Amino acid sequence: MALYLTSTGEGNETFLTDHSIEVSTLFSLSVQNQTAVLPSSKADDQVLTVLERLFVITYEEYLAARRVLRILVYILLPVAIALTCINIFIFRHPRMRSSAGTYIIGISIAQIIYLVNYSIEVVLALTLEGYIQNYYYLCYAMFFTNYVAVITLRGSFLVMCVLSAERLFAVLRPLHIKTFLLSKRPVLFCLGSFGVAAVWHVYLHAKYRVVPVDTGTSIIYVYSTTWLYRQTAAVADGFSISAKVLFTLGSLVVRLVLSVLTIWGLRRHNLTTSRGVSSSSAEDDVKRKRERQMTVTILTASLSSVILYFPSAFHFVFGIIFPEYYSHSGKYSNFYRIINMFSGTFALFYCALDFICFVAASSNYRAVLCGFALRFLGMVASKKNQQGKVCKIEVDPSTGESVKKNPPTIVSGQQ
What we know:
By secondary structure, this protein is mainly alpha-helical. The chain contains twelve helices and six strands. The chain has helices at 26-35, 50-55, 59-91, 99-127, 135-172, 181-184, 186-200, 227-231, 233-274, 282-321, 333-361, 363-387, and strands at 5-7, 13-15, 208-214, 219-225, 392-395, 402-405. The longest helix is centred in the middle third of the chain and has 42 residues, at 233-274. The chain is globular.
């Protein structure tokens, strides 16, 4: 959510940059651009270097990019919700039930919450004018929307790290996977990951308050820092910066390392199989094959999401290291806003990417999906047949009224 006011000492309040924003949506940023930050319409008069020409973007170019990204959001948001719901239904099927499937269901539920949260922003931006300055909305956003978005998105990154570790053990010790703690208690580790994210970001509730501001023509409501935050700003900012580094860039690095180790484990397994070294039974070979296919499926989804989300992670880190250049009020503010909007769009891609990877890499997933599709088409066809039954209309001679009579049902064995 966009945060507008901060304290500059001695009770003075001025509009701020968004160095402390945890998760921003496309629409809240567009409002902030109109109110909190004065955009620059042209570059500085000084001669720009070649590198600077890549980052200096006019305000008109920023508006054009924002229009394109909004169209992408309108398309991707319902698609991501539908595909994530399909993931939940598929992994609840008995054929797909496993510890890894439980982790994926937990991640998918968190993604659904995040997407619904995002959808509320979209609906409000399309239907209500000036909603971002409404007192009740700001309270709702501060205590629920922003906090839930942070927990679901960053908590799912932690769950993916746990899942990657569990899959690495499944490759190295496939016959002992059920004895591994991460495989025995997947629900506990899912809840624990989201709980860590919730506790880490609890300072957000004590950081801001909603205050009225007289603009001369009307009274609007904005965020302002609290007295508690001003007294402990260093601690709160430390939590904010560490969260962006650990939960985004740090989790991606851990997943990348675990994915590389998993690839090494799969390669070692392939070499052992090709040489005929394995002396296990046929049942053990089936277990290994099943765990291997699940691992390859999750590995494909994990690597794809890591590659897709790395630009967003570096975006947050650069904003921390170079705030005078790379922020909403920095030298390259318009470029920063465009990348920030891309990050929100990448999050939608990230939510929809799992389905694509599962379909591409898992034959069991495709089989269960086709089964659901055929069952759904069968239900639709059966309903149409029931509605299209031909009824015989006869006239009752005693009353003269028309009476509908269904054709007799022929039971097997009757003439």
